[in-house]
Input
Amino acid sequence: MIDLKARKIIMTAIAAAMLLACLGMIPRLRAEQSNKTVAFAMEFRDLMTLAVQSDSPADKIWEEINRLGVIGLSVSEFTGEELSLINPLPLKYGPAEQFGISSEKILPDRAVILMDRSSPYFGPLYEYLKLKMPAVEIIDIVPEAAIILPGNTSDFKISSFVPDLHGLDFCRENSIPVLFRPGSCPVSGAADTAAAFDKLTSIYSNIKNVTASGMIMAGYPDYKPLSEVMKRKGITFSQTEFIKQVGAAGFAEAMYPMVIPLHSLTRDEVVSRSISRLQITERFVRAIHERSVRLIMVRPYDLNMGGRLEVFIEDLEFTGGSIKARGYEFGWPSNLKAWPDSLAGALACAITLIFCGWFYIVRLNAGENEKVSIKALSFLILASLMMSVGMWKVPLLARVCGGLCGALAASEAALAALESCKKPVLGAVKGLFIVAAGGLAIAAFYGTTMAALRLTPFSGVKLTLLLPPLLVLIHDLRRRVHPESLPEIINRPAVWGELFLIGIMILAMLIMALRSDNVSNVPTWEVAFREFMERTLLVRPRTKEFLIGYPALVFYWYVVRKGWIPGYREAVRIVSVLAFSSAVNTFCHFHTLLSLSVIRTINGWWLGLLIGAIAVAVINYAVIPMSKKLTREIHS
Output
């Protein structure tokens, strides 16, 4: 027998996992720290609208908003419907019969663009259309030329095919980076779309980024031609958060690693959900600070009547100030540099999984203080090595083990803290240490560049949240931490207090579900409080940790030391597990800067324990003495 008990072995293994995880995350940390440049972008058409409404030159407005962080302009392709309604180019669009063009070959409803050959836009537009749709024909109608498109007007009603050359010229003249938004055009194949884009970018070299327009990605489903042109020219791609566009996710994978996350809030969403200006700011700041978004599409929204330019500038100043206060700078962003996958991270995850799983079984059998043989320890080490190789080589095994690793780490952290009623400070530190080690191990192995860009999902998020309470409950019923066993609970009548607690927990879960997007159903005062916490603490801790889980942990220590409510302690224990599950889950958000995940976890820990200590102090020194005093007065 060796001189180490099971309890000491698990802490040594956790320390080894943390060390390996920290070594494995060095490349990721370097890449993240070099990616702190962000930018606002806005639609070129919105800029033109503001210029008309404010009676100010567009270039003067640009100078002002550029100073406030609007670095680029978004320029789109026009659809046939848009050309008929809002066309700013010197051309006419409509059916052939509208222009008196008819023949056996050209039917009356054939889509036609009529344009003067002397226009500076004629040459670039015709070349673009001929490359995009090789079947395009041209007929001279002196002094104009009729560009005959390969389809009728209904075919092109929602197809995008004419770039906003006016907007592109404005951006080129003012040296403005362009986010080009090509739309889908079923008439144009993937190779033709790529050839047209190649030509366009040779004329407008300030096109720096592409993002999908409409519901379908241009060139879908063949991503290769367009992605090859973009990579050759160093043009990045932006996949818009939370907007499902057919083909956008696949194109982002083809463009890896030249992907810059973009966040956009549509007018319809703002109006339909009555999102306030303060909530819009919070949403943008959170996107940058917590999800590593580097491009924000800003708009002059429609909830305020009149003075749109002044309100827009006020919003840019306030939002930009909030972003700068968090350590970011404005400029044209670059894509996140790829870092190598971490073998050390795989070993850290394997150690966490094997040793925490083993120690959980030891706990079930009350063997925490028993000595462990060299043979058993050697087996655990060998199993960890074999598991790490399996996770490294077999993707399916890695996906399965990710959630189990997080769940077992959270469960061990919770049990270590809960059992430390006599030494609460030590228990709190142990819980934080285990949570950090488990979370960092997951972040080191699963936090790849692909995962950081959300191109590959982490399948263990829900398991990390849901399994720990169940594991702790099984442990408590097995070890009789709760005074009743499961059969005894099932066979006796329900207690009203238990039903009340179950109702409270269900209500809490419903509230959390309704508030899951962090914007809707959140009052203005809370948004302001969140902003205050963000500025004060750098990263706002999770509500589940600092207002629920950790205070419940402190309250549990208190009632155990007082010998109170033995039949209801289990509910408090399960609630406290939520803090540790949430803390490990924080590290599973690989798009968040790792440093912010660490700070968020620490903030939730110390603030939750402080709130819990204050609450317990109020109960002990105010509520209970007052209750006793009232009781004596009633009886007297």
Remarks:
- The chain has two domains: 6-30+338-483+523-627, 36-330.
